[in-house]
Amino acid sequence: MARTRAYRNGVLEAEDFPPEELSEYLRDTSATVWLDLCAPAAEDLTVVAEELGLHRLAVEDAVSEHQRSKLDRYDTHSFLTAYGVRLDEETGVLADDEVDAFITGHALVTVRKSDQFDIEAVVGRWNSASELAKSGVGFLVHGLLDYIVDGYFEAVQSLDEEIEALEDTVFEDKVDARAMQRRSLRLRKSLVKLRRVVLPMREVVNSLMRRDLGVVDDTMAPYFQDVYDHVLRASEWTESLRDLVTTIRETQLTIQGNRLNVIMKKLTGWAAIIAVPTAITGFYGQNVPYPGFGSWWGFAVSTAAILVIAGALYLLFKRRDWL
């Protein structure tokens, strides 16, 4: 499936026309066209590359997957790689959707690796800001990047809420330690993944704003600056959340260690108390004569010794908060 649009002098003139008609619109320098391809075959990209004069290396990058977010510059166009993100709040797993874009003087070609990337949301942003369409390709690129960066904010905000909920459970008396560990590791993994796609976007947006590239004009410059600020905020937010997850994990381990120490202290105290009657009864259970052997007062002395010494140890440990 291919989506197309054509603007002329900032006005939407045609939509969903055959890709073969791109060259007809591009003959007019006042026209700006957009072509979207979802999971195209190599042959499809080859046809587009011949139509727009795209570099062979850029076409190879568009076919291959798991590229780093970047902006490559060629003689006649630029090649952009970015990632949209989606967070599953139930599991805390972050999914990313790669989208590539060829940026020429009068055309934007987007290549999505899957239909999970919501291109309709991007089109909706173009429709809501149609008064900026006179800026040509810069207007189209801004709508694409603005949607992607807003997705970063939604993901990091959801992660922040999940981490706050995780933080509240740290000091609860009854905590499922295994489930908490699994949840914290998933959130940290999602934050690392989000950081991997957010950090390079600072360089990407900054490069697009350069005047010598010719993508951003004076009208779109403030809008790209706003996107750049959002990328910086998302990047800083991601870094702080990653440190917070690490702190929560360390706090949990510290609390578990302290609880174990308290348990061991109590067990040691009771073991010391139990050792007293064990020692006394063991002494009086010898098979040799001893003071009080065979008389009632020997039993009375041993019983009194057990009660007095064990009671004294109990009171001592209780006063020192060992029990």
From TrEMBL:
It comes from the Bacteria. Keywords: Cell membrane, Membrane, Transmembrane, Transmembrane helix, Transport. Pfam families: CorA. Gene3D superfamilies: CorA soluble domain-like, Magnesium transport protein CorA, transmembrane region. GO terms for cellular component: plasma membrane. GO terms for molecular function: cobalt ion binding; cobalt ion transmembrane transporter activity; magnesium ion binding; magnesium ion transmembrane transporter activity. InterPro entries: CorA_cytoplasmic_dom, CorA_TM1_TM2, MgTranspt_CorA/ZnTranspt_ZntB. SUPFAM superfamilies: CorA soluble domain-like, Magnesium transport protein CorA, transmembrane region. It is a multi-pass membrane protein. The chain crosses the membrane at residues 267-284, 296-317. It is found in: Cell membrane. Its main location: membrane. Belongs to the CorA metal ion transporter (MIT) (TC 1.A.35) family. This is Magnesium transporter CorA.
